[in-house]
Amino acid sequence: GFLVGGVYALIALGFILVFKSSGVLNLAHGEVVAILSYFLYQIIAIWGLPAWLGIVLVVPCGAVLGFLIERLFVRPLLGQPFLSVMMMTLMLATVLEGLRYVIWGADSFKLPFTPGGLWQLGPVSVIPGTAISFVAALVIFVLLLLLFRYTKVGLSMRVVAADHEVAQSLGIRVKRVFSISWAMSGAFAAV
User: Residue 77's closest CA among 89, 95, 61, 94?
Assistant: First the structure.
């Protein structure tokens, strides 16, 4: 449960980044995770590319998807009531779900590189895929902590999360931070 919770925390991080920066509750985020999972399956199992290449390809695809969602669907609604933008993300989730069913069907899958069996750590049994996902989530959290603390982009994101008007008065391009946040959210969904 602890390991799975870490993975869910990474998914929640995508929600939080977008909500704190742009004030949008992205109801399509879960479907973005699903689409990117199926796309990774497509790359590895159907196209036959190596697993490492699939992983390397799917993360930037997630970032691009997040960026496109912000640019095409959310940005035109900036300044509109919160509910309007939230309904747009709900509609987008429905469209992405339908697109996923059209392309890949409703069947579940197992990625070919996912280790099977159980790891025994003393009296505790651990599912290898879950443990690896937890470690990846932990690495992302540490990198994000370092980004927020030690980079100009991270500081800009923190200021925008606190107050858009103050950020603009300090010369921070708020819409650029929105785009970065949505792209990061998409990349986290891929991870």
Answer: 89
pLDDT tens, position by position, 123-176: 888 888 788 888 888 999 999 999 989 999 999 998 998 888 888 999 999 999
The token duo for 188 is 């986290």
Residue linked to tokens 């895929």: 129
For 125, list phi and psi in degrees, rounded to 5: -100, 135
Cα torsion 152, 154, 155, 160 to 10°: value is 120
Contact between 63 and 186 under an 8 Å Cβ cutoff? The reply is yes
User: How many CA within 13 A on the CB side of residue 122?
Assistant: 0
DSSP string of 46-103, one letter each residue: IS---HHHHHHHHHHHHHHHHHHHIIIIIGGGTTS-HHHHHHHHHHHHHHHHHHHHHH
Packing angle between helix 51-69 and helix 174-190, nearest 10 degrees?
A: 150
